[in-house]
């Protein structure tokens, strides 16, 4: 390791100041971030209530003679969906943190709150970026499996 390399490769300047336009843009972004986070929390809550009622109502659900979906399958799907919704609360929490800390930073002209709001924004986008990478990986893996199975079926039919 080289001597003098710090944890961060970015050399921090002594002082950063935002213009009034920059503060206005930050305030607007904070308002929209809070609005979007609150709306997302509301919809996650409504979806959770729906899934919980589906899980508990699945045992009472009677599909009749030709039953294709069992109550256990519906309950399993509901529990997995609840876990996915709980997992999706984390980036929304980071977004809400960004908005509230940015508002405090602007109101108090506090550079520490500004750093904390930018850290929350970084966490939000890092989380979303990791989820996108995982999703692309699963899609690529599904494509490869589909191609392999398609080739296998084509040769099996011959």
Shape, per Cα inertia axes: flat
| Extended strand count | 0
Number of helices: 3
Distance between the termini: 59 Å
Q: Structural class, from helix and strand content? A: mainly alpha
Task: Note the beta-strand portion.
Answer: under 5%
Biggest sheet overview: none
Low-confidence spans: pLDDT under 50, at least 5 residues? 1-6
Give the radius of gyration.
24 Å
Mean pLDDT: 85
Relative helix content: over 70%
Q: What sequence of helices (H) and strands (E) makes up the elements?
A: HHH
Task: Summarize the topology.
Layout: H1 20-58, H2 71-108, H3 111-156
Helix pairs in contact: 1-2, 2-3
Please describe the structure with a list of short key phrases separated by commas or semicolons.
158 residues, 0% strand
């Amino acid at each position: 390791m080289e001597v003098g390399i710090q944890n961060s490769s970015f050399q921090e300047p002594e002082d950063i100041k935002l213009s009034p336009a920059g503060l206005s843009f930050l305030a607007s972004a904070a308002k929209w971030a809070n609005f979007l986070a609150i709306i997302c929390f509301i919809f996650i809550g409504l979806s959770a209530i729906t899934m919980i009622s589906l899980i508990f109502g699945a045992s009472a659900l009677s599909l009749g003679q030709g039953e294709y979906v069992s109550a256990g399958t519906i309950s399993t799907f509901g529990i997995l969906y609840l876990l996915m919704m709980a997992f999706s609360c984390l980036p929304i929490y980071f977004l809400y943190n960004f908005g509230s800390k940015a508002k405090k930073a602007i109101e108090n002209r506090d550079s520490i709150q500004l750093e904390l709001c930018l850290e929350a924004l970084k966490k939000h986008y890092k989380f979303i970026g990791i989820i996108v990478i995982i999703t692309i990986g699963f899609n690529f893996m599904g494509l490869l499996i589909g191609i392999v199975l398609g080739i296998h079926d084509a040769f099996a039919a011959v």
